[in-house]
Amino acid sequence: RPRVGVLALQGDVREHVRALAVTGADAVEVRRPTELAALDGLVLPGGESTTIGRLLKIFELLEPLRDAVADGLPVYGSCAGMILLARDVLDGRPDQPLIGGLDVVVRRNAFGRQVDSFEADLDVAGVGGPPVHAVFIRAPWVEKAGDAVTVLARVGEHPVAVRQGHLLATSFHPELTGDTRMHELFVEMVLQRGRA
Ligand code: GLN
Q1: Tally of domains within the chain
Q2: pTM of the full structure
Q3: Can you cite a GO biological process for this protein (predicted)?
Q4: Is the beta carbon of 138 within 6 A of some atom in ligand 1?
């Protein structure tokens, strides 16, 4: 069973642990740099990216996580987690810490006040079956993506699910719907890396 961590500093940690457990992964909460070495994959949950970024510094996880991403650890970021994986953020707080690794620029709280939160049924490339019911909560979108990034889903013209090699990110929160297909996709990425 792949051992998949959920960064547990702030955000909807338990929902991700539950969704991962349904896929058959061994899901563990992660708070310390020393816990990274034992992981086959890591989920960065939704929450508040500026708060999580600040806590990453306090818990001395920022540099170890950058190293882990550079070493090829599969990481899935949802919502705030997507922001943390981005190389840059628009409408972020000045100097908000990012892990980076994913060659995208995201716009924070991109959907604006009128549609602060909304739900949509999305076709996600690589996910079979009916459309994925996606929950967006003060979500970012991808404003710019590098050549190595594959867009898996969009709302209008805006990418809301992307993959770049071992990195996966969604603007939405699959952990809130009971549909575990995004987590299954991620665990598949984790297993593929283990075999490589
Ligand atoms: N708006 C939040 C942020 O900037 C993200 C919201 C979420 O994760 N649901 O971090």
Answers
A1: 1
A2: 0.96
A3: pyridoxine metabolic process
A4: yes
